[in-house]
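Reviewer 2 asked us to include a model.

Predict the structure of this chain.
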Amino acid sequence: MAKFSVRISIFTFGNNSRGDDAAGEIMYSWLQQEIEPLISNGDIQLIHDFQLQPEHIYDLQHSDIGVFIDCHFQAENSTCWLPVEAGSNLTFSSHSMPIESLLFLYTKTFNQDAPPCYFLGIKGESFELGSKPSPQTINNIEQAKILFKRNLKQWLD
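Predicted model (structure tokens):
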């Protein structure tokens, strides 16, 4: 398979023991199979973690595009695809770091703009410890797969 001219870092986040928060891990497993040849060629880097960490700037460093996939309860729609810009400061806690803060840290650390980045959000309803993903979130994950493939095709064509 030929190499593409675009390098993409895809970050998935979540915890499969917290109900709908497993959406990121489900997407990670699907992506491993769906885009395996692109991962093998080095065109795509696939990273899964429980949450975004400052160290992820190094995973984004040599990329042309960054995609962040996560489930959250504040979504208005079943899925969303949004461009993300660097924030104006660094904010994080022991449980979360906004993507905007990661991109701010990237610009300050490397003294250059971060590559274009996008957030693929999946709406979730139930995040209780020990619960399984809700049927609605499973449906939302299927919609997220379609949305992801449409955007990936656009970049690789």
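The CA atoms of residues 9 and 60 lie 6 Å apart. Residues 135-156 form the longest helix (22 residues). We have added this to the supplementary material.
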